[in-house]
Structures are given as C-alpha cells and as structure tokens.
Amino acid sequence: MEASNHKPITGLSLALISAMLWGVLPVALKELLVAMDAVTIVWYRFFAAFAVLFLWLLSRRQLPDLRNISGSTRWILFIASTMLCINYFMFNYSLNFVNGETSEAVIQLSTLFLILGGVVFYKEPFSKIQLGGTLMIVIGLLLFFDDRLSALSNLDNRETLGVIIVIIAAITWAVYALLQKKLSQNFSSVQILFVIYVFSSLVLLPFSSPGELFDLNQAQFFILLFCCINTLIAYGCFAESLNHWHASKVSAVLALAPVFTIGTLKLVVLINPNYEFSDRLGWVSIAGAALLILGSIITALTPLLTGREKAVRA
C-alpha cells in the first residue's frame, strides 16, 4: 500500500506512538487483571471505542451502510470481527499466565503468520530476505525462552498455556488483517473497526461483568481508562500513519513494541525491586528479543526493498 499523502516524519511519529502504546498495554493489563476479568476488560475497551467512533463517524456522516453490500462481504466482515474479538480476548486472557515481556514477544509471530497468509491466499512472493527474517524470528524466540525451554515442553505448565494462548491471538490477528485487505475495497479502516467494535461489544456483553467497574480502586479505574484510550489512540495513529507512509515501514516500526514493554518493566523493577509481574530477562533472552524484533522488521520491509530492487533493474 502506498501512502496517499507522503509525509515520512508524520508517518514515523504516528507509528512510534502506536508501537509505544501497544508496548505499554500489556503492563497495564497485567495490573488490571488483579481486579477485573479478561472478558470485562475487553468489553470496556470495545464499548468505549465503539462509543467514540460512533460520534466521530456520525459527525462526519460516514457511518457504514451495510445494506448494499454483497452476502460474501457480510461474511468476510463477520469473520474479521470474530477474529479480532478473539484476538483481543486471547491476548488479555494470556496475561493471567505470562508476563508482559513474554506476551509481547510471542505476539510478534503475527508478522510471520500475516506474511505466510499473504503467500497462501494472495499469492504474494516469499523472498530469500523474508526467509532470513523468518529464521531470525524463530531463533530469536528460542533464545528469548532460553532458560525456560524445558519448562515450556510441559503442557501442564501455566507459562506454556499462556504462550499457546498468545500464539492463537497472533493467528487470529493475522486472519483479521488478511480479511481487512478485502474489506478495504468497500469501507475505510475506521468504518471497519467501528463495525468490529459494535459486533464485539454485543457478543461479549453476556459474558462480561460491567458492574466490576464499581469495585475498582482509583488507581485501577485510571488503568482501565488508559486501556480504553490506548485502544482508540493506538489504532487511530496506526490507521493515520498508513495515510502518510509506506505500510511496510509502518509495520517495521510497530515491531518495536516489545522494546517499550521490556523497557517499561525494567524501569518498574528498578523503581520497585519487589515488583512481581516481570520475567526479569537475562542478557540471552534480551538478545533473543532483539533478534526477534530485527527479524520482524526485515520481513515487514521486504516489500519495499524488493520493489526498489525491481525499479533499479528496470
């Protein structure tokens, strides 16, 4: 996708904001799960986003009209909504079993799944550069779990269950992203998200407990508010960054999210050495995370790099 209004600095700034917000999000969610269940947290995030986007689209007279679309488009929209709903829940729920560093590292597999999905469903090429990036992602994950590999082989281990849940979250996000490519022919990205937020709010309501809001203390209430605002701003900046910069470069910047997660938790542990929600990664695990991020960046930038190579040859 080419940026329609090419402003690299603006695109970079917006993408960095998204990466930072998505990187800090697991830290906040982990704290909030002490007082509120995962379904209710996700429901509040979806409902708040739906309410704000409704007012935004209504004021601009851009509410999506679903009456005149084909049956196949409706099914694609339904599946995309289901996948992103599952992604939100699974990522939140995984934090009951793993800490923020692990969840944010494993979710980077979504980049790999998205590329493989593009190869299978859109017949996109899979270059040697992407193969190299894929190997770096795999090796990076192995190094990241360096001293925990034996424990992860045990399916009864809580961390193993958490990692499996994050992998499911990564798969469902990739499916959503692949389907959004189809839906963008009929709707804007904001309209697609609005429909998904409405759908998810309705689906999750029977399983959530909105009354838990009144049991939160002041700090927990502001964390929930931050999570809701995070959903709006992060996705808003992400969508807007695509209007000013190449999609491949935006994706590469978003791969930096684990840096913000690990950095935030290192700072928290420095301030509070007794903080319990951190994996306290060693240097081998940090090196693995760096390799994982680099692999994600390389695979994301490949479309741009191969495009330039073809242009030079021409």
Structure characterization notes:
- The protein contains 13 helices and no strands.
- It is mostly helical and 314 residues long.
- The chain has one domain.
- The protein is globular.
- The protein starts with 7 loop residues before the first helix and ends with a helix.
In short:
The chain is 74% helix and 0% strand.
SSE layout:
Elements: H1 8-32, H2 38-59, H3 71-94, H4 100-106, H5 109-121, H6 128-144, H7 149-152, H8 158-183, H9 189-204, H10 218-241, H11 247-254, H12 257-271, H13 283-313
Helix pairs in contact: 1-4, 1-10, 1-11, 1-12, 2-3, 2-9, 2-10, 3-8, 3-9, 4-12, 5-8, 6-13, 11-13
Query: How large is the share of residues in beta strands?
Result: under 5%
Number of helices: 13
Distance between the termini: 21 Å
Using only CA atoms, what is the Rg? 19 Å
Unreliable spans are none
SSE string, helices as H and strands as E: HHHHHHHHHHHHH
Which geometry do the CA atoms define?
A: globular
Give the class from helix and strand content and strand pairing: mainly alpha
Count of separate structural domains: 1
Name the helicity range.
Answer: over 70%
Characteristics:
314 residues, mainly alpha, 13 helices, 74% helix, 0% strand, globular
